Amino acid sequence: MRTGQNEAIRERELTSGRSPAAIVIATLVILLCGYALFEAALKALGQDPLIATPETWWTWISLLPGDLNPLGLVATGLAAMLLGLVFLTHGTRRGRLARHSMGCDGAVLIVDDQVLAAALARRARIEASVGPGQVLVVISHERIDVQIRPTSGTPIVPAVVLSGLEEELRINAVEPMPVINVRVSESGVIGQ
């Protein structure tokens, strides 16, 4: 595979698609059209409308703002604008999935952040000589936060843990290389 194809695959696997937003908009349009069709069918059958006849809706829309409270119109307009901006932003900017890529020649290798966090927590436990449950790793796109609760009476050197975690990321060739922040808790765990 060529490098351009690999980059396209990598980008697709690391970012979220636009499908959920399109599905939400399509569902809202379908529901609105379904309601309008239902009201038109009720009118054609000579039945009373569920809420209002289509003519009533069109008359109400054509007479806007009419005698409605201006504050309510402003609030409705701002809510519609905000909803439109959310969908516009979602449609033009892709989201990021909780994944990182790993360097691999001739292929694309993607790892979930949970898997990477588990590997880093294991390495931090080894470097800090603590037991399971004493290390918490939180990964974001550009940052890794590691919190360690030491065993009471056992000092932990954050620099040693940090160098071990950086080595783990280098071995696994994680791209982009995130910044690691190691914090050692003030309170310890008894006898682990």
List keywords for this structure.
alpha+beta; 2 domains; 3-stranded antiparallel beta sheet; GMP Synthetase, Chain A, domain 3
Can you give a write-up of this model?
Helices cover 53% and strands 14% of the residues. The protein is of the alpha+beta class and 192 residues long. The protein has two domains: 3-92, no CATH class; 99-184, GMP Synthetase, Chain A, domain 3, CATH 3.30.300. The strands form two sheets. Strands 2-1-5 form a three-stranded antiparallel sheet. A three-stranded mixed sheet has the order 3-4-6, covered by helices on one side.
Indicate the topology.
Elements: H1 3-14, H2 19-44, H3 54-62, H4 70-92, E1 99-102, E2 109-112, H5 113-128, E3 135-139, E4 143-148, H6 158-172, E5 174-175, E6 179-184
Parallel strand pairs: 4-6
Antiparallel strand pairs: 1-2, 1-5, 3-4
Helix pairs in contact: 5-6
Task: Provide a short characterization of the protein structure.
This protein has 192 residues and is of the alpha+beta class. It has 6 helices and 6 strands; from the N terminus they run ααααββαββαββ.
